[in-house]
Amino acid sequence: MFTYYFKLGLRNLRRNPALTALMVLTLAIGVAASVSTLTILHVMSGNPMPHKSERLIAPVFNNGPKEDYSPGDEPNDDQVSYRDAMNLLASGQGDRRTAMMGVGGALQPDRKDLAPFNVTGGGPTRDFFAMFDIPFVYGQAWSEADDKAGADVIVLTRALSEKLYGNANPVGKRLRYNGFDLFVTGVIDTWDPVPRFHRIVGMGPFDQNDEFFIPLSLAVRHEWNNWGSTNCTSNVPAGYQSFLDSECTWLQFWFELRSAADREALQDWIDGYAAEQRKLGRMQRNAPNALYNLTEWLEHLKVVGNDNKLSAWLAFGFLVLCLVNTIGLLLAKFSVRAPEVGVRRALGASRGEIFRQFLVETGVIGLAGGVLGLLLAVGALFLISLQSKELAIVARMDWTMLLATFAMAVTAALLAGLLPTWRACQVTPALQLKSQ
């Protein structure tokens, strides 16, 4: 009977086409507004590495001066100093460890048809690539020896490699960056985590992605400045070595643990490390040392702000308003069909059968509203993506939200149709037959 009722619902869409179109449009607008907002929220709050997010840990120390500090105050920054980063790298804690900075400068291509242009990238240690499961198209990451020596090596992204060399394998070639010839060791495949969790403090959660990677030790050896957030609680020290020895925080650090159960042991080690540093005259605030796994890190940095959540609630409120209007339109549509219901009841149809027929018809309206709502949502997301590069990253629909659009439209239509359908079932056959 469902198939029969479904076909009947499709035919009934042509009855009073103006009223049907108004219902479909009302439902579609409400669904489009909700889905557009929910899609952006869904992308922003996504887990970029769900298979290991519990094992990726970011440490945060409070290494600011003791003056003007009260217990419970937030850390002066969510990054670590160079001294702490080097100590953590040498600690042997976790399966892998990486520290990274932002780098940027002028790249001079060998091609005559390409003028020099500026590029930005990351300056991590070698474990970065394995820790974040970064795939390679050509070659590989630089070696441990390169890491220790600060060798003049570089890993390109696929986009930058194709811009410079086309589809050719550039491994083994040299390119000139910031006045130095760098040896290409590898080219990574498309790696586009959203949000940009790995260096979020320095580059933002939805900013442009890195175009290349060089060793942190190389950037330090050449005394290149950090391209990103640098926080010094006092004046920036004069001289590069003084800057490295200072309490300025400018490096993002990550541990990868063998299992999430190792977190407690890491916390104990971190607390012990901070206690040793206090004996050396550092970390005098004696504040708690925080560890955040990947999802906690995104929450801590408020990647999804209250404004985004409020927008989602307002969009759902608008959907509820559209449903109220749809209920009124369905009441009007079903009320004119009272004689039809009376005849069917007189011929032996039960109230349950009438209820199922009209509810299926309401579902058909929901499907039509879902199709139109999806088109409107895609159009809205396209217009939103034109506003900025950051919005272009988050304003994209995936299969999850595509299915959610139809589920939301049909569910909303069925909820809106409960009252009108129930009212249609209350028709008294005798009264309708007498009125004919």
TrEMBL record:
InterPro entries: ABC3_permease_C, MacB_PCD, Macrolide_Exporter_MacB
MacB-like periplasmic core domain segment(s): 20-271
ABC3 transporter permease C-terminal domain location: 314-428
A GO molecular-function annotation: transmembrane transporter activity
Pfam families: FtsX, MacB_PCD
GO CC annotation, single: plasma membrane
Record keywords: Cell membrane, Membrane, Transmembrane, Transmembrane helix
Residues passing through the membrane, by range: 310-332, 364-387, 399-419
Annotated localization: Cell membrane
Bilayer topology annotation: Multi-pass membrane protein
Major localization class: membrane
Highest taxon above the source species: Bacteria
Signal peptide: none
Designated name of the protein: FtsX-like permease family protein
Source taxonomy: Bacteria, Pseudomonadati, Pseudomonadota, Betaproteobacteria, Burkholderiales
